[in-house]
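Q: Got a minute? One more chain.
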Amino acid sequence: MNKGTIVLAAGGTGGHLFPAEALGHELRNRGYAVHLVTDSRAERFAGKFPADEIHIVPSATFASKNPVAMARTAWTLWRGLRAARKLMSRLRPLAVVGFGGYPTVPPLLASTGLGIPTLIHEQNAVMGRANKALAKRVQAIAGGFLPEGRGEHAAKIVVTGNPVRPPVLDAAKIPYVASRGETPFRLVVFGGSQGAQFFSSAVPTAISLLEPALRERLIVTQQARKEDKDRVTSCFAKLNAPADIAPFFTDMADRLAEAHLVICRSGASTVSELSVIGRPSILVPYPYALDHDQAANAAALVAEGGAQVVAQSDLSPEKLSALLTSAMNEPDRLETMAADAKEAGKPRATEDLADLVIAIAEKRPIAEYKKKTISGVQA
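A: Always. Here it is, folded:
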């Protein structure tokens, strides 16, 4: 039985679409029709998204102060707002959920103008620009790492955690087993398309500085940009170190489950997946991230004891080699970090977010919902 329609709005990147996708599956399992509003970048993810229909609405961001560029952006946003109002009037959704990115602005503005219940989900510990612009207008703000009970919008914030993909939940069932003695030590390194470039140089060099006995234990999985792949592969070959190098891994959740240590950036999805699976990590926040959100995400996991954080500017090959040496020689410490990371995880984030969406759709006061226990109890 169709209980009604819920619209999800997200920018066309994986960071915005993956949590929306997880929520979409959960809402459909509960009997709701799901529609997605996004931009043309989302086409590569469209085949997997659980939507009855995907709608492309014009949108843009003010990326330049050039008067002509600003006028074009304003015109595009006006067109997007008109298209979104027409779409919402036709769909008559019970609620509209925004996941960040400038394509969420027209549908969320249109929905609030039409009196449709709305909420936004913010993955990071620092609110993104689109969500910040919408925060005053929506009924609730679901947070992955937002501080609860603080800030201008404290009364609206509910920390649900970040929805993670089903393979991550499956990987979370695999216990962490430390590498001891001379047993193989599995190292996983990744950083996204931009963030991986630094690791392509730093990690092979750091491994070359390890004592031979430690280097012989290493089995490496490393994400590298297409243009860096051959160079990184060659570096590991010269070191006689087993390594699987690729621009993208479709089975990353499985590789994380097998990892004894992870070196990576600290995007919200990454930190959430590490904590749900429960793996120790060295987090290197991407230094050029807007609003330094990655540093704030990393701090949340470090505070729980599940990770170390090192600024990229401080991470010389010698420093990284010393960190690897310490990790490989201290299995008990890594075991404790894995347990602390898992303790910080929120495996019920998708269900908790769906509960909040339904509460907003039913026009229940957010204060009433917040009185209930988020984990384990439906609102």
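A: The radius of gyration is 22 Å.
Q: Perfect, thanks.
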